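Customer escalation, tier 2.

The customer says the design service returned an amino acid string that "doesn't look like it belongs to this structure." They asked us to rerun it and document both sides in this ticket. The original structure tokens are below, unchanged.
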């Protein structure tokens, strides 16, 4: 799941480079929080540390060479295979079988079906020792398309990328007697709500003990986030509206009540107030059920919506408004509506210590389509459940000439632009984990930055509460 990068870039150009937080409204509402994050970054002197860490290093060269070898011998072809055998969220059995078999063959113990999700798994390095627990999140679900499942978001590559990094770093730990271990988290259904797999897995304690987490995701550019609060694709409420009516012959429709008309009215109601909502608001819906035949008044119809805004405070207002639009649609059509809030995704945390290291390595390893300035803050996974609690980074080297969720990005997954991006993602993940395992000063800096930003979240939310006053609407006279 990705938002359109171009919009973010345009916003960055408008607002200047040091864009803490996503919107001008947020920055104006919480100047103190933004200021504290900027001071923190200054104090950490991330630039000097990154220069030191990314200097020539024989151990890292060996790890990166091993990553490349794994990708070229087995894992790029595994990525191609998964691309060609797409499975939508929570049905990814073939992909999971491939990935877990490979992990088992490389000294990882696999537990499948964790957190009650049949295609979720955890793989723990068998020869790990007490020390930093290096986490790798992998995903493998395809998009739901009208022509069937397709890998238009290139999640097909994420597993092989993560495996290459996890295996190369685990071998290094054992070979050099470096304390630490590696855990791979297989997280299904990134494109699905509900359930938010990572939230469910978080609640079940699956991620407990991870000290840092890396994950890759495809993009048409090479970029990294600024530090702060955010998520890739805005805070989201997933809401399903189900209308019930009464059936009748269409020619004697006065004997019925039309649930499909209620759904259509819901879309109309939303469109009629879009101009009164803040411009960053995104409300997208599909009609999931609309009746069975033209000669029977549909007595049941439903629509599935993702309601999005950069922060959860204003999003609460918008979701309440859409709910009212649904109630109004039911009232107007003589139908009844059931409102099901089935999922939500919230801000994670991004840290510059890992983001700048990530960016330096992606460039060093030959990434193309480089965006020089950091993007908006965003956690390394979209639900915010894990990325607001454990520090980490999403590695995004350019792997397509097309934007996310397109047939173009699907096609690029099995060609040079995809393959070279995936190798760079894997090399970068491994290099970051290597630095984290072997440099206590990096671990300290990441921990300091993450916990400091985390401690500012409540104040940030309080500030935002004041930013979105509703207009007074008097009673008509
Ligand atoms: Zn995605």
């Amino acid at each position: 799941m990705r938002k359109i990068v171009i919009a973010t870039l345009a916003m960055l150009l408008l607002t200047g480079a040091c864009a803490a937080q996503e919107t001008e409204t947020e920055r104006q509402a919480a100047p103190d929080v933004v200021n504290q994050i900027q001071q923190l970054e200054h104090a950490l002197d991330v630039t000097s540390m990154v220069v030191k860490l990314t200097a020539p290093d024989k151990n890292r060269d060996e790890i990166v060479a091993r990553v490349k070898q794994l990708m070229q011998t087995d894992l790029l072809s595994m990525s191609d295979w998964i691309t060609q055998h797409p499975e939508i969220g929570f049905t990814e059995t073939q992909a999971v079988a491939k990935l877990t078999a490979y992990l088992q063959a490389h000294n990882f113990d696999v537990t499948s079906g964790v957190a009650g999700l049949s295609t979720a798994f955890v793989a723990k390095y068998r020869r790990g020792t007490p020390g930093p627990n290096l986490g790798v999140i992998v995903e493998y679900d395809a998009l739901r398309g009208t022509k069937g499942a397709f890998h238009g978001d290139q999640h097909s590559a994420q597993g092989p990328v993560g495996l290459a990094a996890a295996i190369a770093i685990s071998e290094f730990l054992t070979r050099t007697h470096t304390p630490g271990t590696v855990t791979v988290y297989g997280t299904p259904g990134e494109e699905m709500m509900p359930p938010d797999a990572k939230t469910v897995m978080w609640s079940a304690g699956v991620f407990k003990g991870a000290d840092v987490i890396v994950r890759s995701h495809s993009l048409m550019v090479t970029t990294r986030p600024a530090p702060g609060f955010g998520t890739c694709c805005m805070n989201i409420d997933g809401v399903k509206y189900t209308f019930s009516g009464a059936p009748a012959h269409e020619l004697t429709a006065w004997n019925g009540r039309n649930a499909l008309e209620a759904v259509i009215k819901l879309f109309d109601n939303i469109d009629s107030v879009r101009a009164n909502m803040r411009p960053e608001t995104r409300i997208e819906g599909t009609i999931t059920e609309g009746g069975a035949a033209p000669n029977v008044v549909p007595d049941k119809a439903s629509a599935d919506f993702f309601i999005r805004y950069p922060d959860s405070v204003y999003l609460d207002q918008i979701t309440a408004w859409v709910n009212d639009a649904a109630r109004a649609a039911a009232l107007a059509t003589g139908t009844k509506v059931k409102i099901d809030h089935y999922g939500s995704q919230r801000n994670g945390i991004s840290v510059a210590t890992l983001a700048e290291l990530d960016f330096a390595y992606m460039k060093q390893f030959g990434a193309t389509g480089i965006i020089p300035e950091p993007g908006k803050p965003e956690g390394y996974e979209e639900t915010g459940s894990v990325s607001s609690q454990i520090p980490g980074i999403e590695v995004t080297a350019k792997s397509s000439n097309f934007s996310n969720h397109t047939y173009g990005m699907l096609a690029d997954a099995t060609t040079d632009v995809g393959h070279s991006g995936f190798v760079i993602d894997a090399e970068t993940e491994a290099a970051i984990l290597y630095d984290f395992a072997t440099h206590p000063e990096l671990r300290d800096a990441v921990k300091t930055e993450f916990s400091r930003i985390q401690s500012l979240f409540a104040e940030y939310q309080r500030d935002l509460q004041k930013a979105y006053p509703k207009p007074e609407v008097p009673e008509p006279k």
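Tier 2 assessment: The sequence is consistent with the input. The chain has a mean pLDDT of 94. The chain has two domains: 40-231+348-456, 235-345. Sent an explanation to the customer and offered a walkthrough call.
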